[in-house]
Amino acid sequence: MCTGKCAHCVGLSLITLCLVCIVANALLLVPNGETSWTNTNHLSLQVWLMGGFIGGGLMVLCPGIAAVRAGGKGCCGAGCCGNRCRMLRSVFSSAFGVLGAIYCLSVSGAGLRNGPRCLINGEWGYHFEDTAGAYLLNRTLWDRCEAPPRVVPWNVTLFSLLVAASCLEIVLCGIQLVNATIGVFCGDCRKKQDAPH
């Protein structure tokens, strides 16, 4: 597969993943789909750090768009430098995307390890923090949270989704980093009529 086509495919995949991260982060703000719990006292710090929105979302959207554009015609058309200028831009964007995905992975991993902030015996707190993530395997502990309702499965599902998406983003940004570097030095292997506008 030539560098242009590869960049286009990777870019579309990154854009899809960043939208998944943004939606997952938005859902974390409304436990069990209820807006009544959207309060700094009721949601965990990891939700407010917006790892999915900022890191896995906006910071990965830039390399996604840059990769799609790198798969098109370059600043000088199909001749001259071809798409090498856009490939060079994609190299830097991909490195930026890796940082964003790592931020999302770190925040989401911490969110899974510490567990949600919830109400147990009239006290709000991180009641699963001392389990070092062992609560994930013991679903009987999940029912101890009185409020927000079903917050543990809600957080576990969405943070797990963010962890998986950010891992894929790191891999894809890494692939595009290598692909774009090759594209800078070797150009695009596509013929002029194959290059999309």
TrEMBL record:
Cellular location(s)? Membrane
UniProt-listed InterPro entries? L6_membrane
UniProt keyword annotations, A-Z: Membrane, Transmembrane, Transmembrane helix
Q: Topology versus the membrane, per the UniProt entry?
A: Multi-pass membrane protein
Task: List the GO terms this entry assigns under cellular component, sorted alphabetically.
Answer: lysosomal membrane; plasma membrane
MF terms (GO), sorted A to Z? arginine binding
Q: Name one GO biological process term.
A: regulation of G1/S transition of mitotic cell cycle
Q: Which domain of life is it from?
A: Eukaryota
Membrane spanning stretches: 7-28, 48-70, 91-112, 158-185
Q: Name the principal localization, coarsely classed.
A: membrane
**What family does the Swiss-Prot or TrEMBL record give for this protein?**
Belongs to the L6 tetraspanin family.
- What is this protein identified as? TM4SF5 isoform 2
Q: Which organism is it from?
A: Pan troglodytes (Chimpanzee)
Q: What is the lineage of its organism?
A: Eukaryota, Metazoa, Chordata, Craniata, Vertebrata
